[in-house]
Prior knowledge:
The protein contains four helices and nine strands, in the order βββαβββββααβα. It is an alpha+beta fold.
Amino acid sequence: xxxxxxxxxxxxxxxxxxxxxxxxxxxxxxxxxxxxxxxxxxxxxxxxxxxxxxxxxxxxxxxxxxxxxxxxxxxxxxxxxxxxxxxxxxxxxxxxxxxxxxxxxxxxxxxxxxxxxxxxxxxxx
Length: 125
């Protein structure tokens, strides 16, 4: 069973072993509207927590996607580059952005669990 965490920037993280799958939440997709373009990093790139690692563009705006944790990009979702609308259909499923080999798995403990994240977006309005 994967450990699932969220950020206040509306990224989700699913951790299995020392690898994290990262994307944007369904809430973020709803705020952005229809996604029309996704730019992903090159595999092998080392990132620090908080680094911009991807860009999503919607009909409304362009937004950075931030790395919730530090590590090395080991995979990118090429299907997303070819079909950015996948984010509109399955943001927290098939439309993952990157997979990171984590520098520190325990750092995920500082992120929000689903209940805390749901409370956060309810308060955010």
